[in-house]
């Protein structure tokens, strides 16, 4: 009976229609991914993408980004300027249409943009909707036009506010992210710089300048060498075996650029882009490149007798990509991306285009540069030999029931439930911290795996040494999802893998080693959002029987102030009450290791899902991640020293 009443009450008046940009403000994550720092910085990318599209169309050579002192961001370009005349259907200025209507823009008109990254046409209107205020200035037709918005709503019609210099055109967008929407509204100079550097490499005819007025930082990116310079930058900390190979071609209105080189490491690093979009899941352009590379190099090796006739080892595609760093950039007129995230290209015709161009151009290059061809085949042959040795090692390991045994590691304290989505494993350094974690955990869904010392630095080791490392074998067995090329994140026994190390130099080193291993051999775990970093407190502040925990110095000082205020101390009393910087009656302890906390404290501060803070490891830019791991963990010392000197001020560790 109640069901019938509910049906009778469910009428047309129950259907809510969100007009204009209301839907964006109601569900912002649907449009920008999330409302954290990641989504915040995505706003800038959306505006910049419009300026880049103008550059791809041949009308723009400069983009300037400024983080203003009031927290707003200004993006300026020298493109044609957003049209301001009256739209024939909407009966309002085209500028207002672009800023307030979803799926509106010149990118749907192939006469305006032959290729474009922002294909969904929601970019700048979404930025407008999620901003406290947004102001747009357009220079075109010898005039300057302006319009301002408040939370997506126009404050006045487009108006002329001045005259421009001769032939001066462009668009300037300034916006202040809405504090009602975002969990943080502070832009990071380095986060924006990474994406702008990437765009400058991919578009060699454009200059991108970014500056932070608050911290007085500024950098300009302009790379005449384009993606060749990109490859050199990525391999800056690696020993290159030859100069980068550059392939450029054009077929069926699809321009292609590829640059690659081999280095002395053991990892494969291929970064793919479609219309400047980072397709980190690859797609048909990547398949075409891999196919052409394998076939062309194999044919070259056979033709020039660079493989020993009596060799029992045959080269595979994996062998031809070990130690390879490559950047693939293709411009597609009508790209079809799989899913809404634009991370995998689906156009079948692109595979044959890339395969054809790479096959022809690479064969020519090898014939003209036989010394380089010989070095590459030698590198690939060594990779094949190592692969064969690793295969034998894996078989031996399996026979010993380590990698594929149903017997879990003895040191693993597993959880009782079997549903991976509700299980989590803590990777802990040392038996002391492991003991506290085992006693303090919730045994139903939390597993503890203590590691002994530091694991192998996989950035400097081949597959044989990696498979022989006891701690790595223990993790592979515990996770239960395989390793390297055989890794399958769907088979992971845990929905969360949480790295929990001490807040000191050794702890930071161990955490970096673990992340390097996971990034290189279990990348899909990071892509699936299953890797986290625990955040144990750095301080315990105690006054009488009351104990509070602080995760950084700022929080520690706030707790001390709170205790003093509760005690009724005024400013003068506070000054006289401090002995060596510490107020009387207040005791502050600095935790240098997890083992210093008893099980109850560790649970309350670091492991209880209701109260803990854990940081999710994500893969915003694969190229940037690869660069950082190689800088920190690779063989070259100078890039690591420069990185440490630059970022030392941000360190928060005891030595």
Tell me about this structure.
The chain has 655 residues and is α+β, with helices and mostly antiparallel strands. It folds into three domains: 200 residues, 2-Layer Sandwich (Heat Shock Protein 90), CATH 3.30.565; 168 residues, Ribosomal Protein S5, domain 2 (2-Layer Sandwich), CATH 3.30.230.10; 153 residues, Rossmann fold. Helices cover 38% and strands 20% of the residues. The protein has 22 helices and 24 strands. The strands form five sheets. Strands 1, 2, 3, 4, 5, 6, 7, 8 and 9 form a nine-stranded mixed sheet that branches. It has a five-stranded mixed sheet with strand order 10-11-14-12-13, with helices on both faces. It has a five-stranded mixed sheet with strand order 16-15-17-18-24, with helices on both faces. Strand 3 and strand 4 form a beta hairpin. Helix 4 runs antiparallel to helix 6, helix 11 crosses helix 12 and helix 13 packs across helix 20.
Distance between the termini: 71 Å
Low-confidence stretches are 1-7, 10-18, 399-406, 571-580
User: Quick one: overall form?
Assistant: flat
Quick one: how many beta strands?
Answer: 24
Number of helices: 22
Strand content: 15-25%
Number of domains: 3
Using only C-alpha atoms, the radius of gyration works out to 28 Å
Write down the CATH topology of the largest domain: Heat Shock Protein 90
Kindly report the name of the CATH homologous superfamily of the largest domain.
Histidine kinase-like ATPase, C-terminal domain
